[in-house]
Amino acid sequence: xxxxxxxxxxxxxxxxxxxxxxxxxxxxxxxxxxxxxxxxxxxxxxxxxxxxxxxxxxxxxxxxxxxxxxxxxxxxxxxxxxxxxxxxxxxxxxxxxxxxxxxxxxxxxxxxxxxxxxxxxxxxxxxxxxxxxxxxxxxxxxxxxxxxxxxxxxxxxxxxxxxxxxxxxxxxxxxxxxxxxxxxxxxxxxxxxxxxxxxxxxxxxxxxxxxxxxxxxxxxxxxxxxxxxxxxxxxxxxxxxxxxxxxxxxxxxxxxxxxxxxxxxxxxxxxxxxxxxxxxxxxxxxxxx
Length: 289
Description:
Region (Disordered): 1-25
Distance between the termini: 45 Å
Protein name: RNA polymerase subunit sigma
Keywords: DNA-binding, Sigma factor, Transcription, Transcription regulation
GO molecular function: DNA binding; sigma factor activity
CATH topology of the largest domain: Four Helix Bundle (Hemerythrin (Met), subunit A)
Number of domains: 3
Domain RNA polymerase sigma-70: 86-99
């Protein structure tokens, strides 16, 4: 990419700390984005959180790596629900989380680090918005595998595959295939506007009872109980300093710079400590699922 294609380095446009000013991130190719991202991450680690310089570097990384979100979203375009614009927005949340947690010292490509975060956010979006009843994650993922396998075998055999053929294709038992098909019934549900079978033939539009009238309201806080229950013992396993850092960051909502000042360490060191702590907690949470 030539120096004037999407990046300018004139005195008036160059932002502080020597970072290039990118006029149109949409014109930055994925290859150039990889090289530029290393530069921006290198500077991001030493910029103070909350400053205009830090915000510029972080926002540019988000915009410059949107191609990773589009790439990851393609995997979900045939699932049959969810507007692609919503999927891209959710994927961007995963990208932002990856940017905030990435450390150049890992010596891995950012794309390899970010794509699992993006996939994870999109999968969570589908689990939270498209399943009508709670189904274990293993069976939710099996439904997706079954859908793909049925399409492949339909094309190959010219007919719908049997349970035995699906089992052989996926390397699973027939019982597992049956479990996956049963779980798929939880993907959709009947309308809450259906008339109740109460002997009252009055149409809903005229004041008749519908199924939604028979349901109680859900307390949104109940959804957090399972997560808190799993997180509590993991927090208890942290040492006193790590628990204090978590409390300052997420309980008292202190910035990394403020935490560093209280602990007598740099903001960059706090960032690394938080990354390690959150990785430990995340690994423990995933092991619980």
